[in-house]
UniProtKB/TrEMBL annotation:
It comes from Collichthys lucidus (Big head croaker). This is Sodium channel subunit beta-2. PROSITE patterns: IG_LIKE. Keywords: Disulfide bond, Glycoprotein, Immunoglobulin domain, Ion channel, Ion transport, Membrane, Signal, Transmembrane, Transmembrane helix, Transport. Residues 1-104 form the Ig-like domain. It is a single-pass type I membrane protein. GO terms for biological process: monoatomic ion transmembrane transport. It is found in: Membrane. One of its GO terms (cellular component) is plasma membrane. Residues 166-187 are annotated as: Disordered. InterPro entries: Ig-like_dom (IPR007110), Ig-like_dom_sf (IPR036179), Ig-like_fold (IPR013783), Ig_sub (IPR003599), Ig_V-set (IPR013106), Myelin_P0-rel (IPR000920). Pfam families: V-set. The keyword Disulfide bond applies. Its main location: membrane.
Amino acid sequence: MDVIVTSSINALNGTTVKISCLFTSCYKMDPTKFAMNWTYQESLNDTEEMFMTYSKKKGMVPLRSDRFGERVLFAGNLDKNDLSITLSDVQLEDEGVYNCYVRNPPDRIQGHGFIQLNVVTELPPPRDSTIAVAIGASVGGALALLILSMVVVKCLRRHRKQELISEEKMEEEGKLEAEGVAEEGTK
């Protein structure tokens, strides 16, 4: 038997949250042998408080709880192996570990899933991709300008160097011609 849950859920304070628990089994559920409990723990070290169970006569039954009152309802479908619950008007005190225990004989193993419920007072701001694109474009543009200016500087230096080499060659040729004229004059 496998129990499938989401390991961590964030819920906004004051809203309703669905806490999912599904199980898979090689055997069809027999209502006379099936057993299921939901429990709550403030932290992993605390004792568990049972707040919902399966009754052979009544199906899923919420238990009296000072913590939850009537805020917990069964939201699953036993025919589809769905044992999910909803918790309405989520409070900061509801944060903790929710355990989903399942026994479906003749499966020999008891299934167990645990969900960490985190209660937040405000949702994180949505990620705005426009800002990321603008920053990326700005950085890209700055890099392009930097590269372009480096290329221009390098080209100017190369051009200046070629001019100097050309002037030196012309001066050398001028000296050679002047020396050649001077040599002819001495003859």
